[in-house]
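Hi support team,

I submitted a single chain yesterday and got back a structure, but I'm not sure I'm reading the token output correctly. Could someone confirm the output below corresponds to the sequence I sent? I've pasted both exactly as they appear in my results page.

Thanks,
R.
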Amino acid sequence: MLTRYIVAAMELAHYEPLEEGGYFGSIPGLDGAWGSGPTLEACRKELAEVLEDWLLFRLSRQMPVPAIQGIDLTIREVA
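Hi R., thanks for writing in. Yes, this is the structure output for that exact sequence:
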């Protein structure tokens, strides 16, 4: 499920060229999940790595993670 979430989130990523060269990428709605790189592919790779770390950090601390394309990673306690 984590892989499906990452793939879905990366489909929403927005990339823009930087004036000084290279690219900046971010995912709307996932504050702090951004990356940059000298090429678009390097930027995508960094963004995917940052997204994985971002998710694991938030999930390990039971912080909210927005659902994307119907994929909800919320950890619920079992009674």
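A quick pointer for reading it: Strands lie at 14-17, 23-26, 34-37. Let us know if anything else looks off.

Best,
Support desk
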